[in-house]
Amino acid sequence: MRALTNISFTVEAGEFVAIMGESGSGKSTLLNLIATLDDPTGGDISLNGQDLSNVKEGARAKFRREHLGFIFQDFDLLDTFNVQ
């Protein structure tokens, strides 16, 4: 099953974006890909012309810290992170 096909959009500096859709429409998949929490099975994820799919984990973590923010619908811990 293909969750996303031919997705392309631009977010300008200072803009806020809401991702909305029916349950199972690929919202979480899209956000996980943008946040580099998941890797695409095809295609690429790019930000400002940089392909994020080949970036090492340390650089991905830095990218998430410096460029992304999430507001979750329900309180939830990210199972891809751990506390040390």
Automatic annotation (TrEMBL):
Pfam families for this protein: ABC_tran
Gene3D superfamilies, per database record: P-loop containing nucleotide triphosphate hydrolases
GO MF annotation: an example: ATP hydrolysis activity
InterPro entries in the cross-refs: ABC_transporter-like_ATP-bd, P-loop_NTPase
Domain spans labelled ABC transporter: 4-82
Family: Belongs to the ABC transporter superfamily.
Designated name of the protein: ABC transporter domain-containing protein
Protein source organism: Lacticaseibacillus paracasei subsp. paracasei Lpp14
